[in-house]
Amino acid sequence: MYRARLSLAFAALVALVCVQAAFVYWGTNRVNDYAQHSRLASDIQAELLDLSANKQRLRVWAMQRLMNTGVQPEQRDRLVDAMYTSAANLDDLARRDLALWTEMVHRENVRMPPEVPQLVSVTELLHDNIRAVEARLAQLVPLDQGTDFPALWAELTQVFDLARGRDLRELIKGAIARQRAAVPIARAATERGLNSLRVQAIGMAVVTLVLAVVLALNLKRRLQRPLDRLLQGTQALQAGALDHRVATGSKDEFDRVAQHFNAMAAELQQHRARADAARRELEDAVEARTQELSAAHQTLQHLDHRRRQLFADLGHELRTPATSIRGEAEIALRGGDRPAEEYRQALGRIVGGVDQLTRVIHDLLFTAKAEADQLVMHPSWMDLRHLLADVVDQAAALGAPHGVRVVWNTNDGADAGTAMPTGSVAVYADADRLRQALVIVLDNAVRYSERGSTVRIALQRGAGEGEKPEIEVVVRDEGIGIDADELPRVFERFLRGRRARDHRADGTGIGLSIAQSIVQRHQGRIAIASVPKQGTEVRIALPWMATPARRVAQSTGQEAGVAA
């Protein structure tokens, strides 16, 4: 039903457009005919005036020739050629005008003006007249004495003005007058045709517009209601109301669409019911399985973290004392013979490094059985100066192959407020663990310093006061430094900065985290400040517990006995 109405509406619009096109085509052809007639009348008038003017010039040339004034034959020939051209153009224009009027007479049933066929006959006479004039002027010679000039000029006048016994001068004048009168008439007819065409086009456009508006409003009214019902149905389905049904009863195409829509909604409602039941069952199964997998995942993550932690700590912890032992051995073997005492000292430091390596292995094995981040501590009273001197010697051995000097600033403290008292500095700490932390810091300072630079170590009072005084070990290098955005994360495990990776490819990025763990287990603090390309400063602050020097000596003696 609706498709039939729509087809009829489109057919009416197409028919109206075709009628409008036919009117426009007919009006355009008519106006074009009038315009062509106007142009032809104007062109014929121009050619007649040219022809008349050239004939008058030939008369003047003939007069001058008879008077022997020295005129040239070439001027005569140019004028004759111009007249031939004008005659040919007039003949073509006259025949075209006759054909146009003939077509207009048959198409519009109008009367042909009598001057139109007359002009065709005049053009035929012109050719004969021009040939006669050309032949007579070719015979023309200057007048002799006693020649009858009036009789000769009368003869020439007949040659110029007569053709087949008809007076061409009158014919041409009449044709010029008729064309002058025909030009404004043709222009007026063209204007009338244009106005008529404009009125017809506007009228047809208005009729087409009115009809299109009426049809559009009618179709919109018949289309709006079923579309609104379908739109309400789709919105209801989108909102999840699968029980919504579109009203039917129009008995057209939209009624069939509504029936299919209702069937689809019913089927979707059934599918949703089945899907909800299956989803609930699946959710219950997934929830139970997710809990199992989450527990397993957490267990695996914990085990994997402990495994990676163990291997990382194991590699780094074993590398540091092994490097120290190798450095001591290389120093002892380098150069010529040395005193036995120096070799004994070197071997003693090597034995100490081996002992440290053995203890590290035992500690890592013990840590692997418990938690990877729990360090086993064996604190005792010790002299921090003595430990620091030993660490500086090891660091010097590490820096020698790289051309880096390690210097201990014995004038501890920058001023009176931070100056250290003379003598031993007693701390209660695990000497091996503290040595490990200091070696890590010094090893990093050496590794990331340029050849020829210096690493400086100082011992000074810390910021703690009162019952909890502190002592600080300060390590300053002239190395590559650390970027500001990476400073807050330097103690994260496995993190190596951009500058560190560019400077040296080796390294795991776990050393500082181990050093931090050791210092924190000693109730201390470790902080890093750095300027890129200028150097890094590491401060290790430890609790400074005042104790008699005798107690430190006893502790040191016990350690020496164990070493022996």
From TrEMBL:
Q: Where is the Histidine kinase domain?
A: 313-546
Under InterPro entries, the record lists: BphY/WalK/GraS-like, HAMP_dom, HATPase_C_sf, HATPase_dom, His_kinase_dom, HisK_dim/P_dom, HisK_dim/P_sf, Sig_transdc_His_kin-like_C
Query: Where does this protein reside within or beyond the cell?
Result: Membrane
Where in this chain does the record put each HAMP domain? 221-273
Where would you find the membrane-spanning parts of this chain? 201-219
Molecular-function GO term, any one: kinase activity
Q: What class of enzyme is it?
A: transferase
Which Pfam families does the record match to this protein? HAMP (PF00672), HATPase_c (PF02518), HisKA (PF00512)
Matching PANTHER family, A to Z?
SENSOR HISTIDINE KINASE GLRK, TWO-COMPONENT HISTIDINE KINASE
Protein name per Swiss-Prot or TrEMBL: histidine kinase
